[in-house]
């Protein structure tokens, strides 16, 4: 299969990542859209990987129907993108990811930290941000900075990786918490009042309340308290 990229273009991709990466990192986000600024919710928090232009607002998406668009979010005044969106297009290995609001994210640009915390043994190779020992960079921009230094082990190119089932899939770094793979079905054992046991399979939206009520206990009418009859006066 012939690569759609020419020789020099492919070499540049290997060295510095896809052509849309730098424009995405440099774009200005969370500013009013220059076209739809008078509309509600016209904040620019999208970026089109195919057009590689300025940041987009939700009203601009009508012109990018078939394009690859990612949403930029913000955490502590820093721009982030969700892992399950960006790892489809680039390899984010060696970059530390974080979980914010139950979603795994990666930061776009460096976050300098001149004084690492006490006891920190590993920091970002570019901006000295404290990291876990298994990572080298704190953001996409810092990994790009490491590639500019000429590190041959770094790349943003997605690699084909042979899987155990004999097939191939792209290896793009960290796996998202929000993977489309369905979660394992769980079995729950419910005990009825009469001592019997039954099980049910449940997914994300199934809970105990959705199970039919258990069999009520048998009521013994012979032991029920009889109602008193009408009282009669004693004879004189």
TrEMBL record:
Region annotated Disordered, chain positions: 195-236
Residues spanning the signal sequence: none
Feature: compositional bias, Polar residues: 199-213
Basic residues bias locations: 222-236
Database matches in PANTHER family: PLATZ TRANSCRIPTION FACTOR FAMILY PROTEIN
Name of the protein in question: Protein RGF1 INDUCIBLE TRANSCRIPTION FACTOR 1
């Amino acid at each position: 299969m012939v690569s759609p990229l020419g020789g020099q273009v492919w070499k540049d991709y290997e060295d510095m990542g896809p052509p849309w990466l730098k424009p995405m990192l440099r774009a200005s986000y969370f500013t009013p859209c220059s076209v739809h600024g008078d509309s509600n919710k016209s904040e620019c928090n999208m970026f089109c990987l195919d057009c590689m232009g300025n940041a987009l607002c939700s009203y601009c998406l009508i012109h990018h129907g078939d394009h690859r668009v990612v949403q930029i979010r913000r955490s502590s005044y820093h721009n982030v993108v969700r892992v399950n969106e960006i790892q489809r297009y680039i390899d984010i290995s060696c970059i530390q990811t974080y979980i914010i609001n139950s979603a795994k994210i990666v930061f776009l640009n460096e976050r300098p930290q001149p004084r690492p915390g006490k006891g920190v043994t590993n920091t970002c190779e570019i901006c000295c941000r404290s990291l876990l020992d298994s990572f080298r960079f704190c953001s996409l921009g810092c990994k790009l900075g490491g590639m500019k230094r000429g590190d041959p082990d770094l790349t943003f190119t997605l690699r084909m990786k042979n899987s155990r089932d004999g097939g191939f899939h792209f290896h793009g770094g960290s796996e998202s918490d929000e993977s489309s793979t369905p979660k394992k079905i769980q079995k729950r054992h419910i005990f009825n009042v009469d001592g019997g046991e039954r099980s049910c399979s449940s997914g994300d939206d199934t809970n105990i309340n959705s199970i039919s009520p258990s069999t009520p206990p048998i009521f013994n009418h012979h032991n029920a308290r009889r109602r008193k009859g009408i009282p009669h006066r004693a004879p004189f």
